[in-house]
Design a protein that fits this description.
alpha/beta, Rossmann fold, 6 strands, single chain, binds adenosine-3'-5'-diphosphate
């Protein structure tokens, strides 16, 4: 059988949910944990730009904004490839069917990519490959409030065959609060990166601020990247990276992946794109329990979030 035929067959089959295994106390897929050394030894370069987030915090949105900035607002150039091929996901390794698609060997893609590279990670700060610190690479971190992150991650785990089964929302809320989800605790993630910005060039942004005033937040990115763009180009970027436009952009909405990997009929990748959607999901009791626990976990930090705008 030809390789192409084999790939087709594999891609059309239903993918099994992945096995998980902790690495340094953080839940990851088994294949990532088993290949951890390869990620840890990744060689960053001084002109790399890293987009770091907790999963579902607005990574893809930020990637599109950054790509538009880097390409001076040229929409055609930004449609040259899928988001995941434009900006390799360095902490992503998958096996089996996954190795047949460009999406999966994010780490290998990053290694092969010519500079200057824009890369993506969901790693908690203590697990970032040390070369990013020694090379002083610029990092944009985007944070999103815990409840909306949770709801978005829950639906994403339902439709994405590369993530463990989330169970019911009730069960998932418990797992999320205990940090028993891939890439670990939301609380430690946002706090860890918040502290890291004191010692490293990190632009720390919030999803809610981006939604409230995209122009202001894009201007912060421009300043951080030391770029200057005409007002007209800036307005074009705001338009092109709005939720409604990105939802229809196959190079940004993950619909080019086979349904055996992401099934958008279960829940679309570009789902709601709104702060406060958690209110449509949490019961009063779940919300009270979550808030109580949240206070304990976030005690002592200056970091605050808005759960609606
Ligand atoms: P929802 O599931 O709440 O809709 P990530 O890229 O980190 O996986 O984050 C995905 C989340 O960001 C999804 O949230 C998605 O809808 C939202 N998103 C993607 N593009 C967006 C945009 N242009 N504006 C607002 N939200 C966006």
């Amino acid at each position: 059988m030809s390789l192409e035929k084999m790939k087709d067959l594999q891609l059309n089959e239903e993918s099994p949910k992945p096995e998980t295994k902790e690495i340094n106390g953080i839940l990851m897929t088994k294949i990532i944990s088993d290949n951890w050394d390869k990620i840890w030894n990744f060689q960053a370069k001084p002109d790399d730009l890293l987009i770091a987030t907790y999963a579902k915090a607005g990574t893809t949105w930020t990637q599109e904004i950054v790509d538009m900035i880097q390409n001076d607002g040229n929409v055609e150039k930004c449609q040259r490839a899928n988001t995941f091929d434009r900006h390799p996901f360095i902490d992503h390794i998958a096996e089996g069917i996954c190795m047949t698609s460009h999406y999966f060997p994010g780490l290998d893609l990053a290694i092969k990519m010519p500079s200057p590279r824009t890369l993506k990670t969901h790693l908690p700060v203590q697990m970032l490959p040390p070369s990013f610190w020694t090379q002083n690479s610029k990092i944009i971190y985007v944070a999103r409030n815990a409840k909306d992150c949770l709801v978005s991650y829950y639906h994403f785990s339902r439709m994405n065959k590369m993530l463990p089964d989330p169970g019911t929302l009730e069960e998932y809320i418990e797992e999320f609060m205990n940090g028993r989800v891939l890439w670990g605790s939301w609380y430690d993630h946002v706090k860890g990166w918040w502290d890291a910005k004191e010692k490293h060039p990190i632009l720390y942004l919030f999803y809610e601020d981006m939604k409230e005033n995209p122009k202001r937040e894009i201007q912060k990115i421009l300043k951080f990247l030391e770029k200057d763009l005409a007002e007209e180009t800036l307005n074009k970027i705001i338009y092109h990276t709005s939720f409604d436009i990105m939802k229809e952009n196959p190079m940004a909405n993950y619909t080019t992946l086979p349904t055996s990997i992401m099934d958008h009929s279960i829940s679309p990748f570009m789902r709601k794109g709104m702060p406060g959607d958690w209110k449509n999901h949490f019961t009063v009791a779940q919300n009270e329990k979550f808030d109580e626990d949240y206070k304990k976990k976030m005690i002592g930090t200056t970091l605050t979030f808005r759960t609606e705008i």
